[in-house]
Amino acid sequence: MSETSYPKVCGSELGYAGPKVHIIVLGNDECFQRGRILHELYHILGFPHEQNRSDRDKYVVVNWKNLLPGIELNFRKFKGRYMDVGPYDYYSLMHYSLYAMANDRKVRTLTPTTKNVDESRIGQRKDFSPIDLQKINTFYKCEKKTQPSSKKMYQTTISQKLKSGMNKKMQEPIDGVISVQGNSKLFKK
Ligand SMILES: [Zn+2]
């Protein structure tokens, strides 16, 4: 693929496929932010978007009629062992915002079903949530390596960041999975 053929979006391949080059696309200036780059790296580790989880209907309603054309893959339900790690996390670095990929930007594409959710934090691209870190540690069996000091530090940092600046209206560049990698057996759409 030549450089000019990459889309002008933030995106990445989904899943580790052994020793090969794994492609992350940072196709516009907005992609060059720490949280957005971490988001794409998380895809390489094998995790799709939070709203791709097979249990997501308990937590969000998708407004399919308002999605941008061709973006449906990022809202489909996936099944697989990556998807079964941990609880559903509204505040994940991998959760879309409530207006993500909307054709009409004034109409939501995702609506939470759970009461007492802090909607201003949904779709955050600041840092891993505590549950994001737990999922990585659990799936890759790194629990012992990260406890106790680094994990505690991360959680403190995240909570501070969530308190500051998270209420700003988030403008979200297009982000999507550009292909599913060699461990695609793990994923069933
Ligand atoms: Zn993504």
Automatic annotation (TrEMBL):
GO terms for biological process: proteolysis. Residues 1-143 form the Peptidase M12A domain. Its cofactor is Zn(2+). Binds 1 zinc ion per subunit. Signal peptide: none annotated. The active site is at E40. Zn(2+) binds at H39, H43, H49. Keywords: Hydrolase, Metal-binding, Metalloprotease, Protease, Zinc. Pfam families: Astacin (PF01400). Its EC number is 3.4.24.-. The keyword Hydrolase applies. One of its GO terms (molecular function) is zinc ion binding. SUPFAM superfamilies: Metalloproteases ('zincins'), catalytic domain. This is Metalloendopeptidase. It comes from Notodromas monacha. The lineage of its organism: Eukaryota, Metazoa, Ecdysozoa, Arthropoda, Crustacea.
